[in-house]
Every structure is written in C-alpha cells, then in structure tokens.
Amino acid sequence: PGPAPSVPAVSPGTATSAGAPGGLDRTLPFERLHEFDGGLIVQIDKLIASGATYQDVGLHAALAGGRLVVDPFSMQAPQGPVSGSLTADSATRAVSLVLHAPSIPVGSLAAFFPGWAAAMPGVRGTLQVEADLRGSGDTPHALLGTLGGTLGLSSVDGSIPNALLSRWVQQLGGGGGGDGRAGGKSGNALSGLARGLSSGLARIESGGDTALRCFASAAHIDAGLATLDPIAFDTSRLSATGHGTLRLDDDTLDLHLMSSVLLGGTGASTPVHLSGTPGTITVAMDPGLPGGRFGIVIGGAAPADPCPAALAAARFGQ
C-alpha cells in the first residue's frame, strides 16, 4: 500500500523564542550566583502587584558558594495556590524545579512555549501544572535539551474559538484520502465524508467558542525528549486521545491520536498522525485498521469519556 495522504497544517505565523534578548540561546546568569552569599525569609500576608492580589506569600532562600536553593516557595495567587522549590548551581550549570500550580492562565504559557501559543490563538482557560524537572546547560536551549523528570498539564472548562476548531477538523478531513489497501471509490468516499463533516462544521460554527471539557497530558521526560502518554482532548464537536513525543529543544512533535468528530448526530472516528513543529504541523491518517489500512469509522457507539483517567494521570496524584 502507498503512504497515507497528508495535509500541511495552516501556519499561524512564526513565533519568536521566549525570554530576554537572545531568546533560547541567551546565556543564563549563573555567574551572578557568586556575587554574594546570604539567606532570605519572606512572609507576606497580602501583596498587590500589577492590580492582582497575592496572599500568604512565603519564601525561604539560601545562596552560598554559587548555589541557590529556594525551598519552599508558596502563595495564594488570584487563580489558586502555588507552591514548589527551585535550585540552581553555577558549578554544574544545573537547575531543578518542583512546581504545584492548580490554576495558571493558559495565556501565561506563551512566555515559555511561544510557538505552541501562537498555534492556539484565542484558547482560554486555566491549566493545572505539576512539574518535577531538572536539567543543565548555559542557555535555555541547552537546558531543554538535557531536561528530565515529569510534567503534567491539565485543564477543564476552558473554551476554544470555533474558527480554530473548524480549521483543525478541516485538516483532519484533508488528511483522509484513502484506506491504503481498498483504494479507489472506497478511499474517495472516506476522504469525501471527512471533508463533508469538516466543511459542515465550518459553516455552522463560524463564530463564537466551543466549550473545552478537558485537556490532559502526562509527560515523562528524559534527555529533553518528552513522552506524552496519555493525551486527551474533549469538546462537544471534536475529541482526541492517544500518545506521542515532543522534542523540547526544537519543538518537534510526533503524535498518534484517535480523533472523533461529531456533527448533527453523525460521528466519525479516524486514527491520525501529527508531526512537525508549531508552524509546520502535518496531519496524516494513521494505519489504525487491521493489516495497516487507513480508514474512518462511521457511527457506532459513542467513545468513552476520556477525561477522568487522563486528568488523574496528568495530575500525578495531586
């Protein structure tokens, strides 16, 4: 059988790297850790910054011999409690971070993942972040390339612009050109149905937002490669579950998902393969049928609710 048809994703534009001038290749200021030794204990009942109120702010920091330890830090932010610890060692260029943050605005991730933020304009909601990470390097790029640990991201009750959701579904439809073995009319019918569902959604949902029931991903990271398992995404129109990898130092994505589209009581499910970087993602049908065939399943039982198990995994027991 021939290769599965694929369709390049619509590029939202190129995003620059995050951070100070120099972006991911700027030199991290480890040498400044040698400027002085000392300790700091902070306890603030109420702190107002940029119009936001933070309560019960606590921090214990110690700096000696070029090694900084912040353990613990905690506060009650407007979106919820935040706590964790941080270490940085100038001798080894090593950094470690433990973070528990149940409610961080999705938009704040643009500072750390600018490419992916640009690929999801208008998505609203909050993320629960559970991180236990460590790495080493003179630049953020080098640090990402050595990163290890775990990272859980989850969200409930958010929203996605219908225009963005329509584009995603259209890309799925454009990727469905055949079943790899049957070919001919069968392949054309599958592709046509997928495109029909996506174009119908585009007409009906031309404005407004769709509720995001959940998003969840648990990542186990080794040497800068994040293994994402599970991945779950669920709305009333489009849902997806699966697994994959993300190369943190260059944003290279490789996902294998079972996607389901629902429109007017008619549902279609197909395994898809997403690959590339934020501005160049390609969507292709995955060989999910017996014999390595490609295809779309029409109708049938509604897929099981993907949210509970995926959310539990992404929260790592929190």
TrEMBL record:
Protein name per its UniProtKB record: AsmA family protein
Domain AsmA: 33-229
Chain intervals with Low complexity compositional bias: 7-19
Domain of life: Bacteria
Organism: Endobacter medicaginis
Cellular component GO terms, alphabetical: plasma membrane
Single GO biological process annotation from the record: regulation of protein targeting to membrane
Disordered: annotated span: 1-23
PANTHER family tied to this protein: DUF748 DOMAIN-CONTAINING PROTEIN, PROTEIN ASMA
